[in-house]
Write a structure and sequence with these properties.
By secondary structure, the chain is mainly alpha-helical. It contains 12 helices and no strands. The chain is globular, with a radius of gyration of 20 Å.
């Protein structure tokens, strides 16, 4: 019995170390760049968005709003308070929806992480997130042009933690917070991917996520809801699943529903939207993920 356990430990350690070596530097670089943007560029990005308020761009303003949402280093938890401040300053809600949607789905740190999945998956992630923001903005412009969609009552912009007068120390403190926030999920993701590599047959992964494209996309979109906890933690899993036969479309669906329905933050989204519009948000996320996944599989294979 001990010899069997020791053998399994050796196998898992091998797979863990292999995955760790392959992805570790992407994680480090992602944290370094993410903290740099958060400390030195976040206010500039948000001020660019604030500066759009008086522009006469109409619905076309959702395009730069979506791009600035991707550039913003905030995740869902930080996006809602800053969005509340934008709303109080009179920001158009269709622009605000586009900014919030892409900010929730992607940020500079996650872009660097996703580079470890290869250039094709990285391009799919960036483009699909950008288009998701465009779609969210267009839907609000079409259906809620003359009535409010968001209710930010009770939400205030949070005080910045990056206030140390020494810029280097300010950066290092942000990097330390970043490490504490993502480190455990990163290691857990590698452990889970090692366990998948050891114990889950490759043909099963092909059947789930690669054989029947429509079924694979639906499965990936669905499991993205409960499984996604942190972007850094899911990248090792996606690497393993793609290696085992997951289609690009299934990966795209997972990368949309996962961050958009991150379970720890959905409570705040529900408060901002109310129950009816919250259900619309979930339906939009799932439907966009499914359509995107099916389209990606159609053009990639």
């Amino acid at each position: 019995m001990l010899s069997i356990l020791h053998r399994e430990y050796i196998y898992l350690r091998y797979y863990f170390e292999l995955q760790f070596r392959q992805i570790f530097w992407y994680w480090v670089l992602g944290m370094a760049i993410g903290s740099f943007v958060s400390v030195f560029a976040k206010d500039g990005i948000h001020n660019l968005f604030r500066g759009m308020r008086d522009k006469k761009w109409g619905v076309f303003g959702i395009i730069p709003a979506s791009l600035l949402g991707i550039a913003s280093p905030l995740c869902m938890y930080g996006t809602i308070p800053i969005a509340a401040s934008f709303a109080k300053q009179g920001m158009r809600e269709d622009w605000l929806a586009a900014f919030m949607m892409t900010s929730i789905l992607l940020n500079p740190q996650l872009i660097v992480y996703s580079a470890s999945l290869g250039p094709t998956v990285l391009a799919i992630r960036i483009i699909s997130c950008f288009l998701c923001g465009i779609a969210a903005g267009l839907l609000l412009w079409f259906f809620y042009r003359n009535k409010p969609f968001f209710d930010f009552s009770g939400f205030e912009e949070r005080a910045s933690h990056d206030t140390h007068p020494n810029l280097l120390i300010r950066y290092l403190l942000n990097l330390w917070r970043n490490l504490k926030a993502t480190g455990l999920y990163f290691l857990l993701g590698i452990l889970l991917s090692a366990m998948f590599q050891r114990y889950v047959p490759q043909d099963l992964m092909v059947k789930l996520f690669g054989g029947n494209k429509a079924w694979g996309v639906l499965m990936a979109a669905t499991i993205g809801v409960p499984l996604y906890a942190c972007g850094g933690g899911t990248i090792p899993l996606l690497r393993e699943w793609l290696w085992d036969g997951m289609s690009y479309g299934s990966a795209a669906a997972f990368m949309i529903t996962g961050p958009a329905t991150k379970i720890t933050n959905l409570g705040a989204v529900k408060i901002v939207l109310g129950i009816r519009r919250f259900i619309l948000y979930l339906a939009f996320t799932m439907l966009f993920a499914l359509i995107t996944g099916l389209f990606v599989d159609l053009i990639c294979f």
